[in-house]
Amino acid sequence: MEKSTVVLVDATQYGADPAVVRVIERRFPLVVVSKQDDLGAVYQRQPPESRVITCFDFDFPDIGSLSMLSEAKREFTSVPMVMFTEQHSEALAVWALRTRVWDYFVKPLVEDTVAESLNRLDRLLTETSNRDPRTTIHQKHPLPDDARFQKHRGEDKVVETAAAYIDHHLADKLMQADIAERCGTNSYQLSRLFKRVYGITFQEYIVRRRIEKAIELLHNNSASVIDVCWAVGFHDASHFTKMFQRHTGMTPSQYRHKWLTARSVAAIPFQLSASSPVKI
User: Fold this and answer.
1) Residue 149 lies in a domain
2) Same domain, yes or no, for 110 and 191?
3) 65 with 159, same domain?
4) In this structure, are residues 122 and 53 in contact, taking their beta carbons and an 8 Å threshold?
5) Given this model, what pLDDT does residue 1 score?
6) Which of 45, 66, 174, 246 has the smallest number of CB atoms closer than 10 Å to its CB?
7) What is the 3-state secondary structure (H, E, C) of 205-264?
8) pLDDT tens, residue by residue, 133-168
9) Are residues 123 and 168 in the same domain?
10) 172 and 121 in one domain?
C-alpha cells in the first residue's frame, strides 16, 4: 500500500525550512502549501483512498499562525497534525499538546526521530483506514527512558532549579543571593555548584544564557536589536553589543545578516562554542 501523503503548511517568515522538506520528501509523497491556501480544497484534491498527514512548519509562531493550526485541527479532526518550530518554549509545547498535535519537534531536527514518528503515524493511519473517518487518532505517549533512573542528587536539583528560574527571568534583574535563597542555599555554594556542573560561575552562566537567547531572538526579523537587547536583560545597547561581539565575534546586526544569508542557502544553526571562555 502506498504511503500517506504529507501536506506541509509553510507558516514561516522566510519560507519552508529545507531540512524539513528533505526529511519528508525522502519518505513520503509531499505537497507544500502556504498558510493562505484552503486546506479543505487541498485535501479534496487528493485521491479518495489516500491517507493524509498535515505538518505545520513554523519558525517564529505568532497568534495568527497558531490560530490557523488550531482551527484546522477543529475542522479536520480525522487528519493528524505534526508541528515543527524554531522558536520553542514550555508554554508553546503545552499549547501544542492541548491542541492535540500528534507530535512536536524543535529545530534543528533529528532526522531519524522525525522519520520514526511519521512512519509510526502512517502505520496507524493504514490500520484505521477502514474506520469511521470522523474517528480521531490518539497517540499514546510512552514513559521517557530516564524515568527509570534514580532522582538527581540534592546538589544537582539546586542547580536545575536555579537554571530553570534564570531561563524564565532572563529579562529581569537576577541577583545571585535572591536565587540562592529560593533554592535553599547561599551565594557561595550556588556559584560552586554551577562551576562543578557547567564549568563556569553563576554570573558567567547568566551572561551565556542571555547571549544564547539573544541569538535565538535575532532570527525573528520582526524584532529589532533594541527589542532583543531588553528582552534578554541587557538595558544598555552598547553593553549588549559589546558582550554579544565578545562571545560570537560579531555584532548583533552582523550576526543577523550572516544568519539570513546562510538561511537562504540552507538551515545552518549557530551555536556558541562550548570550549570558548565566557568573560564578563
Assistant:
1) no
2) no
3) no
4) yes
5) 61
6) 45
7) HHHHHHHHHHHHHHCCCCCCHHHHHHHCCCCCHHHHHHHHHHHHCCCHHHHHHHHHHHHC
8) 444 454 544 433 433 443 345 667 888 889 999 999
9) no
10) no
pLDDT at site 173: 92
pLDDT of residue 65: 83
Q: What CATH number is given to the structural domain containing 167? A: 1.10.10.60
Give the range of the structural domain holding residue 22, as residue numbers without chain letter: 5-127
**Percent of all residues in the chain with a pLDDT value above 70, rounded to a whole number:** 84
Tell me, yes or no, whether 65 and 103 share the same domain.
yes
Looking at the fold, whether 108 and 56 belong to one and the same domain comes out as yes
Over residues 44-59, mean pLDDT? 89
Judge if 44 and 108 occupy the same domain: yes
Grid cell for residue 49: 483512498
Rounded CA-CA distance 21/10 in Å is 10
Q: Is 74 inside a domain boundary?
A: yes
Q: Is residue 268 part of a domain?
A: no
The band of 131, judged by pLDDT with boundaries at 50, 70 and 90, is: low
pTM (global) more than 0.70: no
CATH number at residue 103: 3.40.50.2300
What confidence score (pLDDT) does residue 240 get? 94
* 203/200 Cα distance (integer angstroms): 8
How many structural domains is the chain composed of?
Answer: 2
